[in-house]
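Hi F.,

I've been meaning to write this up properly since the lab meeting, where we talked about keeping a consistent format for the predictions we share between groups. The idea is simple: the sequence comes first, exactly as it goes in, then the structure tokens exactly as they come out, then a line or two of notes. No screenshots and no reformatting. I'm using this chain as the first example so we have something concrete to point to.
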Amino acid sequence: MSFGDILGWHRIVPWLVAHGVFAPGADHPLIPVPGAHGAGLDTPRMVVIVVAVLAWLLLASDIRDRRRRIPPHQYGAPT
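Output, unedited:
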């Protein structure tokens, strides 16, 4: 039994293709996803993923930075 079988990858990939997260294999995506029968990411989908990851990183760093600037007694940290 492989890791993909444990996750149910064979059921997840068709759902991702049907909902437009992955490009179907017939569209010849730039980055095929392993075990997805040719489905993968094309340029517009890669741009969306890169922007989402960058936004998440900026948000996470901002939250961390704000936490450093707030004195510990104001956000419930033990003193």
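Notes:
The first strand starts at residue 31 and ends at 32.
The radius of gyration is 20 Å.

If this format works for you, I'll send the rest the same way.

G.
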